[in-house]
Amino acid sequence: MQLSVDICNTKSYLAGTGWRRSAPLTALLLRSTAEREQRRHSVSDTDVQEITQQVTTFEELGLSPKVLSAVIDAGYTQPTPIQAGAIPHALEGKDVLGIAQTGTGKTAAFVLPMITRLEKGRARARMPRTLILEPTRELAAQVEENFVKYGKNHRLNISLLIGGVSFDEQLKKLERGADVLIATPGRLLDHFERGKLLLTGVEILVIDEADRMLDMGFIPDIERICKLIPFTRQTLFFSATMPPEITKLTEQFLQAPVRIEVAKPATTNASITQKLVKSGSKPWDKRDRLRQLIRAEGDELKNAIIFCNRKTEVATLFRSLVRHEFDAGALHGDMDQRSRTTMLENFRKGKLRLLVASDVAARGLDIPDVSHVFNFDIPIHADDYVHRIGRTGRAGRSGKAFTLVTKSDKKYLQSIEKLIGEDVDWYDGDLSTLGPEDEHEEKPSRGKAGSKRNDRDRKPKREREARPPKAEAQPEAPVAAEATQPVESHRSAPAPRPAERKDRRDNIRSGNEDRRSRYRDRDDDMPAVVGFGDDIPDFMKIVGKV
DNA sequence: AAAAAAC
After folding, report:
1. Is it the case that residue A455 has pLDDT exceeding 70?
2. Which strand (E) or helix (H) includes residue A277?
3. What pLDDT shows up at residue A374?
4. What residue segments make up the domains of chain A, in order of their start?
5. Fold agreement between A1-11+265-440 and A25-262
6. Which fold has domain A1-11+265-440?
7. CA nearest neighbour of A89 among A68, A62, A123, A120
8. Smallest CA–C1' separation from A409: which nucleotide?
9. Residue A45 and residue A49: Cα distance in Å, rounded?
10. Dihedral sign, CA of A426, A428, A434, A440?
11. What's the CATH class of domain A25-262?
């Protein structure tokens, strides 16, 4: 079934061609505080000043020529509603309350005016001039990329303060004086407590994804940080929804903000084909099912994100897929930052076909051109479903989203269908001829042949944890060798014939390799390589490069 | 029935 989903369409605005399609979106612009108060609880269409049709180009927004030229160079001509609404006010120095989903062009809505305003003045050591708070490290890094892209005509000192990486380099950049400081709350406060950071010079504060910060328990940190910054600052505040806690926060820390609300569009151009796929409820049933689906999609599946609900499941599924010779990587919050960065980078570059991920990758991540999304686990919260499948079908492309559904998933499925206002079709393709896994299908109890594999599946988390390969853990594939050995050369190596593949798989299942990996030193745990001989997946050979 | 974030 073809179903339009708001987040996906709006996401397409980030792509060059997408920004022109602003018609379905409506930006609400309520000018005065009084007006806003009056209408807070009942915003109706007649209250709305539509600005979408009025502003048609970036030139009209008041951005500086240098910023404008970077925007044009990036291929954008028309601002999205949130950009058209927020930029003029942000340039005037007003506080902005932006209510918008990720992917509505929200990031550029604060990056562009900030760069314009930063043209005047200069940063002093340890006193950043602007501060942007993000809920996850990957989003923070993504915002940094935006500053690099749109600030290419400027000489901005940009500093990224996130956890999981060393302090030293971050300190150096702070010492040099940061025009732009992008941070996750934990690491920012860490630096502050060490006395390496003064927030008294911050002219512009951006709080992004506020409702997600709320979910993550960041609000006390946010309140603390806000209090450290002089109230003469300008605050740009973004949230997809406005629960009471967030409203309270805005009342506390924003001064006479201009409220800009981007409504969810009812229909979209970009579309995602969604399918539900019945599966047995055991993890191995689901893994079998997933492999069948991936094979059934064949070449149509260019690349895919596979979402699991738990980090342990991400790790297990990742290892399982690699064992079955799929080109897979993993991304979740317990992985070391280096692996996270590398996995995401390789997936973005197309060096990795499958990315098994937790919901750390569900929202906001800008990965154009993902052909498929699989929900290995049905998301417990319906809005996560929308965010997850919104990773595909972007930039005017079509996408496919498959969700594995077990008997116990019914209530979650119901809440999803209620949220999106439509029933999702069941997969009608034939998966019964797609491989040896089928014989395990829907088996209520484990057969003898499968029991060893299942034993492994049930091992406690720590020993099974997927350790995405670290560069230093594979001396046989040093960075230098990678440079002289292009990825294509691996690709062109003769692939094992189907019969060999099956043999190898059975061999792995027999448990010999398992025993080896089980007793290996944990830090040296590179299970994916064990048993592959020379047939190491591409991505493992390139992880040295960051 | 979860994930995310500082050491």
Report:
1. no
2. strand A272-278
3. 97
4. 1-11+265-440, 25-262, 470-546
5. yes
6. Rossmann fold (3.40.50)
7. A62
8. B1
9. 8
10. positive
11. alpha beta
